[in-house]
Input
Amino acid sequence: MENLYDCIVIGGGPAGLSATLLLGRSRRKVAMFDNGTNRNRVTQESHGFLTRDGIKPQEFKNIAIDEVKSYPSVSILDETVIGINKDVQKNLFLVNTSNNKTYITEKILLATGIQEEFPISQIRQYYGKSLFNCPYCDGWELRDTPLALIAENPEHLIHMAKLIFNWSNDLIAFTNGHQLPENIRDSFESKKIRVSTEVIKQLHGENGMLESIELESGEIIKRTGGFVAPSFYRPNKFAEQLNCEVDDIGKMITDGDGRTTVNGIYIAGEAEKAGPSSLILAAADGFRAAASINMDITLERF
Output
C-alpha cells in the first residue's frame, strides 16, 4: 500500500524534525506533515541551541530538513492535516489532509506545537522583534535597556518579573487593568520596579520596534522592548478527538517518553504541555518520543 507508513509525524518544528530524523535513521517509513505555521516563524533569531545560537528560525529549519531528507524512507509533505480517524479492525490510523488525500499509518506523533493569544491584539505587531515571551531566549539581547512586562495574571507577572530583573533592573510591570495584591506591589517597589495597573490604550513604535506605551489616562511611558505573558493553546483538537487523556491544567497525560493514553498515539514538544519550550528541549522531546515509537514497532514485529 503506497500511502502506508510506519509513523506519521504531524508538525515540522524542532520536535517533529528531531523525531523524523531518528525514525529515518531507524529505517522506518515516515511521513512528516508541515504547513509552516510554527510559532517561532515571527522570531528574528533563536537562542540557546548549542552550535546554532542566534540562528534565524527558518535557517535552522532548512538545515534540519536537508538532514532529514538524506534518509530515503522519509517523506516531507507540505500539507495540512485536518482529521485523524482510527480503523479499529486493522489497528491503523487514517490521516486526512486539506487537499483530500488520505494517508495510512501504524503510529502517529503529534508535534503540532501551540499558538499564542495576547491580552492586547496590538502586541502581535511587535512580537518577535521587540516584545518576547521567553527571557532565556531574548533576555541577553535586551539587557540593561528600559523594559516593559505585560502580564495580566499575577502569578505569571511575579515569575517573569523576577527573571527579567536579572537582565535589566529598568523594568515596569503592566497589568492592563488588573489589580495586584498589596504585598506583591510592595515587593516590586522594594526593587524599584514600578507597577501600572491602568488599562493599556496603545503601543507606539515603528517596524515592530517598541518606543512607548500609552495608558488609558493619557500617560505615555517610554520603553524600548520587553516581555509579555500570553496564554497558549493547541491549534487543533487531534489528541482530544482520539480520546487521549488530558489533565486538569491541559497537559497531555503521557508515560514521560511520549506515549499518550491511546495506543499508537505519541506526542512531543510544546503540544504535550500546552506551554512554551525552547528549541533544544523540544528537539529532545522529539528524540525521546521517536525512540519510544521505534521500540514499540520493534517489539510488535520481532
The CA atoms of residues 6 and 179 lie 53 Å apart. Helices lie at 14-25, 57-69, 135-138, 154-164, 182-190, 238-241, 270-273, 279-301. The first strand starts at residue 4 and ends at 10.
